[in-house]
């Protein structure tokens, strides 16, 4: 029995390593594409319209979180069913998730289109109508395309559930690449209006997922292909009960992080969104690299926990600790050389203060430390304490408003973002160590 479990652990580690290596290449490719998009979009739109586009793109991420955690619930339940050899149950979970996503997105699309059409969107976003006359039409087009992508992106969760996150990363990288090519074509043709750039960037991932669907479910995993006959309410509830917990965690992240662009636009100006996002795009390269390592651990941890292979989880945790220290050194070096990098990358089209880059590095490091624990906790479904800490998302907006009103300095706004992360990190670390040592009792239990 020991040899069987040891062999399974070795296979799990081998699959994890292959996905980490593949994901590094894919994420590296995606990072280069994202870096190229920044100066290209700046040249297409200018600082003001580019800031508005970044604001709009951050708001569109809200739609991505409206799946009430079904995507993450799917990847966890799929990993569990496949670990147990329950293929028919796995197909039921996939089919039921797709059906539920459709039920969610159709009314959401109707309501969002109505809001964009009827509300004073310019006043809401603090945007000048003379500088961005196409804002309403661009928003309606983007919302429609993103809602369609909302359903098809479950394909990525399927690949993560079968411990192939590198393929999920590949789909996202392909979407970004298509967006880059489309934006470049608009630029060289002289047709790079705000509307066209928005449509190009929101349509690109949809096209990739539409092409990925037949390959995934007719060639790669036909036994998981969604089917109406396999839609089962109990499977939806099984996925949803866990998914709702992920949903609240996602909403907390949305409130605290994805609203940053909206808050910066209102507290300061839409133009200030551009240097903030440039600093984030640059410093977050380290976060992307770290997430490449972390992502395969999520479902590998689920598999290991289902098989009671705690020794494997301890070994993986040690490796994550070493990598976290490497990240700290990398962030320090990136901050020191940032003035030269910005000069080569974006030239004099936008100024990014060193203080902003430094605070962004602190913020990203805190995200990394939190992630190295939360991915393990998510993998075993230990979400209760993380849910309790979502109260910090409620604190974030009024605290950010108070500090920004008093200091009128975006660096202090970013300091609030950092502060709101610290309590969750401490709780995650304590709970993880208690679970691993078998001492988790009371509210520390799963």
Summarize the structure.
With 446 residues, this protein is mainly alpha-helical. 83% of the residues lie in helices and 0% in strands.
Q: In angstroms, what is the radius of gyration?
A: 22 Å
**Terminal Cα span:** 27 Å
Largest sheet: none
In total, the number of strands is 0
The coarse silhouette is globular
Q: What is the arithmetic mean of pLDDT?
A: 80
Structural class: mainly alpha
Detail the poorly predicted runs: 1-9
Write the H/E string, N to C: HHHHHHHHHHHHHHHHH
Question: DSSP helix count?
Answer: 17
- What is the percent of helical residues? over 70%
Strand content: under 5%
Entry keywords:
single chain, 446 residues, mainly alpha, 17 helices, globular
Structural account:
It is a single chain. The protein is mainly α. Helix content is 83%, strand content 0%. It contains 17 helices and no strands. α1 packs parallel to α10 (260-267). The longest helix has 63 residues, at 2-64.
Topology readout:
Elements: H1 2-64, H2 70-83, H3 87-118, H4 121-125, H5 135-152, H6 154-161, H7 165-189, H8 194-220, H9 233-258, H10 260-267, H11 270-306, H12 310-345, H13 354-379, H14 384-388, H15 391-407, H16 410-419, H17 422-436
Helix pairs in contact: 1-5, 1-7, 1-10, 1-11, 2-3, 2-6, 2-9, 2-11, 3-5, 3-9, 5-8, 6-7, 7-8, 9-15, 10-11, 11-12, 11-13, 12-13, 13-16, 13-17, 15-16
